[in-house]
Amino acid sequence: MRGGNVAVVGGSIAGCATALAVSRGGAERVTVFERADAELRDRGVGIALHADRYKELESAGYVAPEMPWAPLTRRVWTVQDGESEYGRAIGEQPFPFRAYNWGSLWSELRRRVPEDVTYRSGSLVSEVEPDSDGVTLHLADGQKERFDAVVGADGYRSVVREAMFPGRNATYAGYIGWRGTSADVADLPSDGHDAHNVVFPGGHCMIYRIPDGVGGHRLNWVLYTAPPESEGLHPDLRTPTSLPPGRLNSELTAHLRALVADNFPPYWAARVLRTPAETTFIQPIYDLEVPHYTSGQMLLVGDAASVARPHIGGGSVKALQDATALEAAALAGGSWKEVLESYDISRGPVGTAMVALARRMGTAQVESTPDWGAMDKADFETWWHEQNSGSDRNSGFGGHSLKRP
Fold this sequence. Notes:
Blueprint: E1 5-9, H1 13-24, E2 29-34, H2 38-41, E3 46-50, H3 51-60, E4 70-79, E5 88-101, H4 102-112, E6 118-121, E7 125-130, E8 135-139, E9 144-147, E10 149-152, H5 159-164, E11 171-182, E12 194-200, E13 203-211, E14 217-225, H6 250-263, H7 266-273, E15 280-287, E16 294-295, E17 298-300, H8 315-332, H9 336-367, H10 377-388
Parallel strand pairs: 1-2, 1-10, 2-6, 4-12, 10-17
Antiparallel strand pairs: 3-5, 4-5, 7-8, 8-9, 11-14, 11-15, 12-13, 13-14, 16-17
Helix pairs in contact: 1-4, 1-8, 3-8, 6-7, 8-9
């Protein structure tokens, strides 16, 4: 990579981390192509980093203590229990996570991208054309630019992945995440240091506090459930997409609000239902795996390479770890071939393991939920252990350790 001309397609969290990685890795020129501008990218949603993963990423120089965050220490699983205001806790777990706001975390990473990196907002890459010793990018405005290597950091609808593995697209998992944020953070239990999972037949809702980016906090929640079968629901759910407030189907919105009203303890139902409609959106849940993270002079990071359902709390962690591994491969490799082979070997198996674990968790927590109301805390511990039983000691909830055996 030393002396090379590298393009990074995608300029969000994965793209900014990748730009930092390839710059540190010795690339002479780095150009980031981001299709959107800053105003379009931030919906203010939450991201949680496991404390152990944070330490690894801080040591590698990709996160820092001054990035705004909110501490989480415990996760409480709660089921509706008659008229009880807060419901009944069926499970409690240590939850050593740091909660971030997507927008502020992106801003911090964007600020750390070296000044000699060219970051081009509003630049849509429409096609990626590899050849024997480089890659040409076709831009939507008709321009073409050639690079020694191209990194796809362009998410689960990646144009770089399409060039590497045509037709390898994200697959709809059969359910959605309904997400929202609000300023409704007063009087949260445990001073806001708990993450709360409200469970119901056919899904759950995770609720926790995040920074608001200006010194305060917001309430962040995501509800996972299968939408009702309806011809008029929305045609986009099976095609990789997300649905902002202006495109939410009224039937789906009414169904989700009724689900909350009928199945949540009163306190948590009120918090979700008071969320302003303009700060909610739908995120269909997908799975994605690729046979390799590299092909020719192209490689993938983050969701462009693999999409694990959000239940493992490791999506953003993996994107930052991919960048960390790419930097290490670039510094150690004596040729492009060595760099790409080393990166593929280090990250491919991790992506596969995370997708498999996330599928197990999605099955247990959404697709085939237990009888939550009949559970006590011992039942819950058994149920939780079964989801993680296939994980090795360095992989599981919160992401995969960089310190592999």
